[in-house]
Amino acid sequence: MNTSRILVTGAAGFIGFHLSKRLLEQGNHVIGLDNMNDYYDVGLKESRRAILSGFKTFSFHQFNLEDKARVDSLFSESGFDYVVNLAAQAGVRHSITHPYVYLESNIHGFLNILEACRNNPVKHLIYASSSSVYGANKKMPFSVHHNVDHPISLYAASKKSNELMAHTYSALFNLPTTGLRFFTVYGPYGRPDMALFLFTKAILEGKPIDVFNNGRMRRDFTYVDDIVESIVRLIPSVPKPNLAWDGMNPDPATSFAPYRMFNIGNNQPVELMRFIEVIEEKLGKKAVKNLLPLQGGDVPETYADVEDLIQTVNFKPTTSIEKGVSNFIDWYLEYYKVRI
User: Fold this and answer.
1) Are 80 and 235 spatial neighbours (Cβ–Cβ below 8 Å)?
2) Which of 71, 159, 206, 270 places its Cα 20 to 30 Å from the Cα of 146?
């Protein structure tokens, strides 16, 4: 991929920050968009943005994806080669108590991106979906070739809707789109509402941690650098129509249109209790566990089949939780100036 002009929405977010930094280090021009909302600590988002602002080829815009006029103006003025849409209202449990914001940001906002890409053609639109779309599916590992029509949270439903919307634009307007189903991403500058951050903070403060489903959970924890490497490799890998696609036996991961779906996960589910042990070992402190039942919207296990990713870009996430958790805690202690 030669030097390109790339729009990254959600650039001050966790994955968006790491991706933008990597793209900038490669010499690309990155235009970042983020609404800097207060779903979690805005100070953390400001810290990420400040790092990105140190690059001469980075520019930043602050507004909502739902603002169609500003989205259209940004596209018409900037002439993007590629678009990576990572902006979204995140959080499975939050979607149960605050449903309307998910429709506004994740559906309305994504529609504005699709329309802008249609009217200002780009080489490739990549967008974030989620492992949560697998919902009630039980067949493991989760494959992009499986049907995913039984979401169990509005967040998951909004992400599944993004996949359907993207396919429509690929089919109608020949817009190349690739959806990425991320599996439990973690790492430095991670989200404060995620388990690793919450557990680390609580253990350091001697407070109990909430362990759902009495600890009987397995997650395909995926280190953020592996997510970024996957995206960087996929950006120039523009999807083409699958000439063997059969409407009598439709493959959900491909299409007669330029449309693809990929899982990005570590392909190695980890027991939640083992995950907690790794944090305890690194901190040298035991967690006080508050065992709770399974929460609404949560799935007990995630496990990614990443064969399509390997076949397409010759890459598979491999960072161990021991290494990834250690890196996160080193960052946490330095960022928050905590001594142990």
Assistant:
1) no
2) 270
Q: Is-cis flag, bond preceding 252, omega within 30? A: no
Q: What's the confidence (pLDDT) of residue 158?
A: 93
DSSP annotation string for 7-49: EEETTTSHHHHHHHHHHHHTT-EEEEE----SSS-HHHHHHHH
Longest dimension (CA), the chain: 61
3-state DSSP call for residue 156? helix
Which phi and psi (to 5°) does residue 304 adopt? -95, 130
> Considering only CA atoms, which of 278, 266, 281, 241 is closest in space to residue 317?
266
Q: Provide the token pair at 270.
A: 């980890």
Model pTM score: 0.96
Is pLDDT at 124 greater than 70 in this prediction? yes
Q: How far apart are CA 133 and CA 112, in angstroms?
A: 22
Residue numbers annotated as active site: 155
Task: Name the token pair of 25.
Answer: 């280090």
314 token code pair: 């010759």
